[in-house]
Amino acid sequence: MNRYATVGYAFIAPSVVLIALTLMYPMLEGLNISLFEMGIDFQRRFVGLDNYREVLTNPAFWSTVWRTLYFSLVSGVASLALGLGLALLLDMQGLWFRAFWRVLFIVPWTISHVAAGLSWKWIFDSLYGVANDTLMRVGLIAEPIVWLGTRDWAMFAVIVANVWRSYPFVMLLLLAALQTIPRDQYESAAVDGSSPWQRFVYVTLPHLRFAIFVATAMDFIFNVRQFDLIYVMTRGGPRDSTEMMSTLVNRQAFEFFDYGVAAATSMAMLVMLVVATLAYRRLMRSASEVL
Amino acid sequence: MTPPLARRLRRLVLNLVVMPALALALLFPIIWMVVVSFQTEAETYATPLVWWPSQIDLRNYVRMWEALDFQTYFINTAIVAGATTILAILVSAPAGYALTRYRFRGAEAYGTFLLATQMFPRVVLIVPYFVLMRSLGLVNTYPALILIYVSFAAPFCVWMLRGHFLAIPTDLDEAALVDGCGPFAAFWRVVLPLTMPGVVATAMFAFLVGWNEFLFALVLTTDQKMSVITLGLASLIGEYRTQWNELMAATVVSSIPAIALYAVLERFLVAGLTAGATKG
Amino acid sequence: MGLLMAAAVPAQAEPVTVQFVDWKLNDSQAILNFYSSVAAEFEAANPDIRIELVPVQWEQRVQKFTTEVQAGLPRDAIRLSKDDLVSLHPLLEPLGPLLVEAGITGLVEAMPQSIVRDSLTFDGELYGLVHNVSADGLMYNKRMFEEAGLDPDKPPRTWEEFRAYAERLNKPPQQYAYGMFGAKSASSARRWLRVFWDAGCEFIARDFTRATFLDKPECIAAFTREINFATVDKFTPPGAASADFEFVITAFAQRRVAMHAGGSNNAAIADSRNPGILGELALAPMPETGAALVNGDVMAIPKGAKHPVEAMRWLAFLNSKDMQVRSALVLNATPARADAIADERIQADPMLAFSPPPEALFAGYSTPKWPEVQEVLFDMVQAALLEEQTPEEALRDGAKRIDAILAD
User: Fold this and answer.
1) What sign for the dihedral angle of Cα C362, C368, C373, C375?
2) pLDDT per residue as tens digits for the range B121-179
3) What does the angle CA C51 – CA C52 – CA C58 come to, to the nearest 5 degrees?
4) How far apart (Å, rounded) are the C-alpha atoms in residues A84 and C16?
């Protein structure tokens, strides 16, 4: 091993030690439990891959996988659009009170998921919520919409709440990345007579590519893990319309006390997420030489 | 070039129409939270909606802060989130730097592994971690929470900082090394200060991981004196009755430290650090 | 004075601390004050025991409890919901031997046998003491009855009458006759089981082997009638599939819903949201048989508790007749003990004294599979409320899934 690599290992050493100390044992234990039948009395009975067979052959599991993917992707695209748009606005020349706006738009990120979920549940209440009240006053709808009690609207409502809670993170990451773009590149582009749109596509976007990858990949992981917001707003209902992997695992563990099955579902979820992330990284990498 | 008149018009639209409209749309739930935090329960549930409290009533804030002991929760949460922020940056910055500057075996796989550790549903990790902390005698201590929160934040922070290290020309490190700096000094004294915008974003992220985490705090604190804000918020949601007004007062107050921190750090979110350095 | 106090306590007897975990302590300052004063009274009478009141979050009470027992750090005593014990009793200490060891007699005998005690007994062992009970009646608004030209002192006695009343009370979109609980929660599960119980049907067999709600046509008819109140008659506010306790009680407090199935506690909550409405509210047995599922707060001792005997003494103190009466007045819940219900302080409040006919009460199904069965029950209810299936289709579909769960 050359000295050069040794330095590299030394730099990552603190993070390795940390993960080994805290997460390694719980993750291996999770893997271990997934091979056992374990109920409320915590007695373990080895069942090999039976839990995996039970999980993977259940059609409800697969529909939950697709639903989680749908929720996460739609939320992710919306958060990216909103976050990127706001980051560009907040970085625009000629913006007054820049610091004020930058602080203001970050606020939803600081609200706890539970409080955010409860507030959105109130906003989307079909009898006395503000969403219906406003839409009816404006004349966009004649009848109140049953937001949380119908399949499609319930999904819409949890996505809106989730995007509201997560766009500031994307915004901040991209706003920070915008600061790394050398200003002289804009100036030379402006001198070339290019339009703002051309400058965005040819100067800004290429520089943001890595940040967009990190922001969207992280946001995707947060979305897949999102539990509190959905649980507070709909508990996965009505029927299975907003049931996600997170609410499913929680139910298996803390309502059915089927710890082995909950662990197996988690492992299956982990594998799928890793594959999805690797594929996404490959996709982004093929579109850019920087990554 | 855009003619000056059109540019001025565009600027007015941006400042007087676009920004206020966006703020109103996106911050509407926040406005409502603040309003409810000043109301009485009867006002909150009145029909038609009461938008303006009959008086500015601070009782919810007083009750939340004193009777419900949010004061203690605040101190605990601030200690935990503060330590999480500092440690997460200290752990993740060198790793993020190494992944951009040093080609070593397993570097890519390690980056992916770090992300993978965050894809495991936490409900499954909670009991083994509790058992682990119990055997170390750390239940009901700050380190139990700080350690796990750093583990939740740092892997993401590595990725967040990585992009910022990528944006800094390698000539800088090389120049530092030629000048006789060691590899760590080149990273710590020369490169890291230039990634301030990235550090700000990362610090905010790590702080909020520590500030808003719920599940592990729930299980790892069995003593009320060690409780944190998210647990305090959840305790206002009862079997039959959610104490809306206190809950919203607590939510408003608990978002202030993060906002204040960001207001302080925001000034470092500026362009040109790199450009200046290369010229110098 | 200090010297005297010190002399009264034997020098070597360090008091034992009993930790009592209770979500109610978070509910209001009045409740916290009440239990603090009870603890002080107990400590005065038992100088060798100190009580530490430990509040817990309602939603997370089960998760917190199970992880603590699993990690080997159980508390000494805990309040649970009666329905929790169906799955959680393997993590609790049987109370029989502890009662003997603590020298407590007559306490269990004071609890009503038929419903409450039996449902807390698993494999012949008793696992909990019932602190209070709740059983739903028809909660209605007398003022809204009057305004609709109905006699507020004559609530509907049959489902025919109920329908006739509902038609007069129903003035959508401003006012609806009936609040229905279609969202997932333990309390709405009890209300749907009531529909079957009222029609004389078991939901699953008493030996927990199969679904039995298809056995008689009356069961299907009862379920269809209840669903139709929402989907056909439109007696309920739109969106019954997502209507939870919060939604219904708020609509009821705002006089947008005239009737719902609820207990005395609901009246108190409605009054805190709309002060003064309490005087308009009344509680009567549900139409037809008055059927109701019984739930209540249960006090138990976690497995592996460090001081189980001392904890037993504390729980016995908390469930004496006088304490049950006093706590009932603070919690707005009916006491469990017959002698406590008969107490004049309880009888003075018709809501607290309310009890459905004893023969119409039912405690639910004590099988560890119940949480999974209940999940299917919600799915059937919501499928029918969303009109994705007819009520009968939903039942037939659900019966197959429940049979599979119970056969497993």
Assistant:
1) positive
2) 888 899 899 999 999 999 999 999 999 999 999 999 999 999 999 888 888 888 888 88
3) 125
4) 60
Give me the interface pTM, i.e. the ipTM: 0.92
In chain C, residues with a C-beta closer than 8 Å to the C-beta of A144 are 173, 238
C41 vs C44: CA distance, rounded Å: 5
Query: pLDDT tens-digit profile of C322-336?
Result: 999 999 999 999 999
Of the candidates B266, B158, B157, B153, the residue with the CA atom closest to the CA atom of residue B211: B153
Rounded CA separation B122/B151 (Å): 12
CB–CB contact A273 B116 (8 Å): yes
Q: Among C217, C206, C193, C210, which Cα is nearest to C295's? A: C193
CA atoms of B45 and B39, how far apart (whole Å): 10
Q: Which residues contact A139 (CB under 8 A, 6 or more apart)?
A: none
- Rounded CA-CA distance C284/C153 in Å is 10
Nearest Cα of chain A lies from the Cα of B58 at a distance, in angstroms, of 20
- The beta-carbon neighbor of A262 closest among B7, B124, B237 is B124
* Residue C32 amino acid letter: L
* H-assigned helices in B39-185: 41-44, 59-62, 70-101, 107-116, 122-135, 142-166, 170-178, 183-185
Q: Which DSSP string corresponds to B176-203?
A: HHHTT--HHHIIIIIIGGGGHHHHHHHH
Check CB contact under 8 Å for A238 and C371.
no
SS3 C137: strand
3-class SS letters over C274-301: CCCHHHHEEEECCCCCCCEEEEEEEEEC
Token code pair at residue A141: 């709808």
A284 backbone dihedrals φ, ψ, rounded to 5°: -70, -35
CA distances from B1 to A186, A192, B5 (A): 13, 10, 12
Please state the separation of Cα C291 from the chain's center in Å. Answer: 14
Return phi, psi of residue A234, to 5°: -135, -15
User: DSSP secondary-structure letter at C90?
Assistant: G
Q: Which residue has the tokens 């602080």?
A: A103
| Residue ranges in chain B modelled with pLDDT below 70 | 1-3, 272-280
- The values of phi and psi at residue C254, to 5°, are -90, 10
Angle between helices B70-101 and B107-116 (to 10 degrees): 160
- Does B45 contact C250 at a Cβ distance shorter than 8 Å? yes
The partner residue sitting opposite C241, judged by closest CB among A238, A251, A254, is: A238
Q: By C-alpha distance, which of B83, B219, B207, B70 is closest to B139?
A: B219
**pLDDT digit string (tens) for chain C, length 408 residues:** 344 444 444 445 689 999 999 999 998 889 999 999 999 999 999 999 999 999 999 999 999 999 999 888 999 999 999 999 999 999 999 999 999 999 999 898 888 776 777 889 998 999 999 999 988 999 999 999 999 999 999 999 999 999 999 999 999 989 999 999 999 988 899 999 999 999 999 999 999 999 999 999 999 999 999 999 999 999 999 999 999 999 999 999 999 999 999 988 899 999 988 999 999 999 999 999 999 998 899 999 999 999 999 999 999 999 999 999 999 999 999 999 989 999 999 999 989 998 888 888 888 898 889 999 999 999 999 999 999 999 999 999 999 999 999 998
Report the DSSP pairing between strands C77-81 and C16-22: parallel
Q: Read off the pLDDT of residues C114-135 as tens digits, 9 standing for 90 and up.
A: 677 788 999 899 999 999 998 8
* Chain C residues bordering chain B (beta-carbon distance below 8 Å): 23-24, 26-29, 54-60, 63-64, 67-68, 70-73, 245-246, 249-250, 253-254, 256, 265-266, 269, 272-275
Tokens of C285: 């047995």
Contacts of C64 in chain A (CB under 8 A): none
Chain C residue with Cα closest to B140: C73
